[in-house]
């Protein structure tokens, strides 16, 4: 009997070390950042068995086999559509402002098209007003409505949007709704799913979370985009989830979530529609590429002084594109750089770029929430404060709710608005979207909004920060160690 137990014990130990060796090989063979590789190696070697489980769930698998197969070819298929779109030369901007030129050239060479002009862009900063305008657009829709959100939480004004969508579907508007399985778990447990489907709305649960799927892909890969497309002409995107701000996470005590959205009329809806069609095909296997622009429609209200690029990330899309775009934008700054983000856990390259901007004389400000919904990210972000403050970056902590806006304003001309947080998950993993807007009028409106945020914030004092308790510094370092995994 002892021989049998010893044999089993030896076999378990052998399997364990074979798994460790296999994971070590996989970490080393794939060129990751050194901090990320070191974090994974320390995790699997220091935490027996648990480290292997963490790697299995979060370390390597991205999409299921079927989805991965579609994702691997999805952008090349879309490029054929983009080539057709290029024939509509009247929608493309030839020349950009000085600060925007480098970033728009990057987007053109990596994504295949130039910036899109002839759009009317509106910055929306109040969730209640955003919902009111959206409901109006839904009721006025004639042909199609496409939506994708990370979170749709039933209740309050979110139910008003659902009712409007159902009404439009019943009168013949083709409606598609794609929601992240984890973020919208309350929605998928509500009666709204059956009600919507009965009215003719196509409802898709993206990246489904269940026990069996955790063995086939990363469970923390999420559909984080927020997109609305109406009649292939009106489009919305930004940081807002489909929730009632008076009801969402009310028990957390952090106050209302503060968001930004853009509402755009014009041909940019076509390029955003390409991204939506890619997501839809990855999830369902069906292709729904948008119709090419209607020349007569886009002759209306032309705006020749601005252009927009759309950057998408996630499996199947140009690799590291958003990270490259952020770096290019920051290095393009000459006078002023203002950033808002709820989650500040930048890569080493981004941290270096931000600090370098401040050190070469650019006025750099970062606005983050004082109160946070994520303890892990809150503590992990604190470790970056000292380096940023030493470089001359001003850090403002917003006091009136959870600042959920994701925005960058450069030299009062170039704006980046979207779903991307300055953390590892947004930069390297999730399905995200960012609008790059070269428009002085829009940027002026964004500047006004950011100044309002600053007026409702407290400035972090470098001297006071340097005197914080020693135990907090230790805690910050512990969470910093986990930051490549966040």
TrEMBL record:
Catalytic residue list: 224, 226, 231, 404, 406, 411
Matches recorded under SUPFAM superfamilies: Phospholipase D/nuclease
Topology term for the membrane: Multi-pass membrane protein
GO biological process: one example: cardiolipin biosynthetic process
Keyword Cell membrane recorded: yes
Keywords for the protein's UniProt record, in alphabetical order: Cell membrane, Lipid biosynthesis, Lipid metabolism, Membrane, Phospholipid biosynthesis, Phospholipid metabolism, Repeat, Transferase, Transmembrane, Transmembrane helix
SMART domains: PLDc
EC numbers for this chain: 2.7.8.-
Location within or outside the cell: Cell membrane
Catalytic reaction annotation: 2 a 1,2-diacyl-sn-glycero-3-phospho-(1'-sn-glycerol) = a cardiolipin + glycerol
HAMAP family: Cardiolipin_synth_ClsA (MF_00190)
Function: Catalyzes the reversible phosphatidyl group transfer from one phosphatidylglycerol molecule to another to form cardiolipin (CL) (diphosphatidylglycerol) and glycerol.
The protein's name in its UniProt record: Cardiolipin synthase A
Organism of provenance: Buchnera aphidicola
Gene: cls
């Amino acid at each position: 009997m002892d021989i049998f137990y010893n044999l089993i014990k030896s076999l378990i130990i052998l399997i364990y070390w074979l798994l460790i060796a296999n994971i070590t090989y996989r970490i080393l063979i794939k060129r990751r950042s050194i901090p990320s590789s070191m974090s994974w190696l320390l995790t699997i070697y220091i935490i027996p068995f648990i480290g292997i489980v963490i790697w299995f769930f979060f370390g390597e698998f991205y999409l299921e086999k079927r989805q991965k197969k579609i994702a691997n070819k999805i952008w090349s298929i879309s490029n054929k559509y983009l080539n057709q779109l290029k024939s509509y030369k009247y929608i493309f901007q030839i020349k950009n402002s000085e600060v925007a030129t480098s970033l728009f050239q990057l987007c053109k060479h990596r994504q295949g098209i130039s910036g899109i002009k002839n759009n009317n862009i509106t910055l929306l900063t109040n969730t209640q007003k955003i919902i009111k305008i959206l409901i109006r657009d839904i009721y006025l829709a004639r042909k199609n409505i496409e939506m994708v959100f990370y979170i749709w939480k039933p209740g309050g004004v979110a139910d008003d949007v659902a009712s409007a969508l159902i009404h439009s579907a019943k009168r013949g508007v083709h409606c598609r709704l794609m929601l992240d399985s984890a973020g919208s778990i309350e929605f998928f447990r509500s009666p709204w799913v059956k009600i919507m489907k009965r009215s003719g709305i196509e409802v898709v649960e993206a990246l489904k979370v269940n026990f069996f799927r955790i063995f086939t892909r990363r469970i923390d890969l999420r559909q984080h985009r927020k997109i609305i497309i109406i009649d292939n002409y009106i489009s919305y995107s930004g940081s807002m989830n489909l929730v009632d701000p008076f009801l969402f996470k009310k028990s957390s005590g952090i106050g209302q979530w503060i968001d930004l959205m853009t509402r755009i009329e014009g041909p940019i809806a076509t390029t955003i529609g390409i991204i939506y069609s890619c997501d839809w095909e990855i999830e369902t296997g069906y292709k729904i590429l948008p119709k090419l622009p209607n020349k007569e429609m886009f002759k209306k209200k032309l705006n020749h002084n601005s252009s927009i690029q759309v950057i998408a990330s996630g499996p199947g899309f140009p690799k590291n594109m958003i990270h490259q775009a952020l770096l290019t934008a920051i290095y393009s700054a000459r006078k002023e750089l203002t950033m808002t983000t709820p989650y500040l856990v930048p890569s080493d390259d981004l941290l270096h770029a931000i600090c370098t901007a401040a050190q070469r004389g650019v006025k750099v400000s970062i606005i983050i929430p004082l109160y946070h919904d994520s303890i892990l990210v809150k503590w992990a972000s604190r470790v970056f404060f000292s380096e940023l403050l030493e470089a001359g970056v001003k850090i403002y902590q917003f006091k009136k709710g959870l600042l959920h806006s994701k925005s960058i304003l450069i030299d009062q001309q170039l704006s980046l608005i979207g779903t991307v947080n300055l953390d590892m998950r947004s930069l390297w993993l999730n399905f995200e979207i960012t609008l790059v807007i070269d428009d002085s009028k829009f940027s002026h409106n964004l500047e006004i909004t950011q100044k309002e945020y600053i007026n409702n914030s407290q400035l972090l004092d470098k001297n006071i920060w340097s005197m914080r308790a020693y135990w907090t510094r230790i805690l910050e370092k512990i969470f910093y160690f986990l930051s490549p995994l966040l």
